[in-house]
Every structure is written in structure tokens, then in C-alpha cells.
Fold:
Amino acid sequence: MKNKIFAILCLISGLSLFDGQQLDFKDKNLEKAILENFDLNKSGSIEQLEANRVTNLFLVQKGITSTDDLRFFKNVKMIMLDDNNISNVAIKNMDHLELFSCTGCKMSKFEAENLNNLASLYLDNNLLENISLKATPRIDQLTVSLNKLKTINLAMLKNLRKLNIEHNQIQKLDVSGNPNLQTLNVGGNKMKESDIKKGMKTDFTVFGAE
Structure:
């Protein structure tokens, strides 16, 4: 009976039974960085209610090796993970995320899926040979310079305006499906402008073509 009364009180107050749940982090360095800024009740742990209030995660040079724990932060709008050591990154189902940056992370694999509001993606200076972008319709700025990409599929990025693929291993590029493209940087790819397939109505500036 007491449990039932507690549940009713939680519903009346607009709180979930799980809001006070202590989150179990896989990456202890990420947990430490989160605790420094977002342990609002000073309990020494992060609860789901606290995680729900986080909108910006600035986690540069924190010794982080995994992004699995980012799933706890459903309302985050900006994530910066630059200069950590994260080999595989998968970011999925984060409806509010607008900016994601993971530069200089020694990353070899990147996947993004169901990020409906992601507009800016920065993945420079990594070890990427391919990237997977699924259901990321709002991306307008993509920077993947200083990687090992041989190909990149941009067909799904209808709102893309700025693209930087400098210093990869790409020899041909198809941007015919990117009608809003304004600037393209291809330096360091041994690519001529004739190697770039453009849409008939696409008018943009190319930098770095041989």
C-alpha cells in the first residue's frame, strides 16, 4: 500500500519513478567529468533526472574511451569530445542533438543514426576509413578532413551547405544530390574539379582541386 501511495505521489508531482535512479556508467572518466559539473544534489552519483537537465557536454581531453554512456543524455544539444581516445563512436536516437564534435580522437569508425536535429558534425584528424550517416537530414556542415576516407556517401544530406574533406584519399565525389551546397574543400585528395559530379542546378565554390 505504501508503494502504491508513493507511486501516486510521484505521478502527481510530475516525476517518474526512475528519475532518482542512479546511472551506471561504463566509462569512469566520462562519469568523473559529468560529476564535476552536473551532480546537482551532491550525492556523488548522477541520477536520470540530473542527466535529463543536461543540454551541453564539453568533454575535451578527459581520457574518455567510450561513447556508450551518452545515451543517458536525451536532451543534450551539444557534445564536444575532442582530443580523447575513442576508437569506435556510435551516436543514435538523440532528438535534440544539434552539434557533435570528436576531432583528434584516433577514431576508426563512426555511426550516426536518428539524429533529426543534428546540423554540425566535426570529425577531423582521426583514422576514419568510412562513416555511416542514417536519418540525419538536417546536417548542413560536415567536416571530415585529415582522415583515411576513400569514398563518402552524401546522397541523404539534402541540406548540406559546407563540406570539408581535405587530406583524405578520395578520388571521386558525387554532390549531385546536395542542391544547397555552398562551399567544398577537397585539397589533398588528388582530385580535379572534373572528378566532382555536380547537380545541374548546383552552384558552389570548390577549394583545393588540382
About this structure: The chain has a mean pLDDT of 90. DSSP finds three helices and 13 strands in the chain. Residues 2-12 form the longest helix (11 residues). Residues 70 and 91 are 8 Å apart (CA to CA).
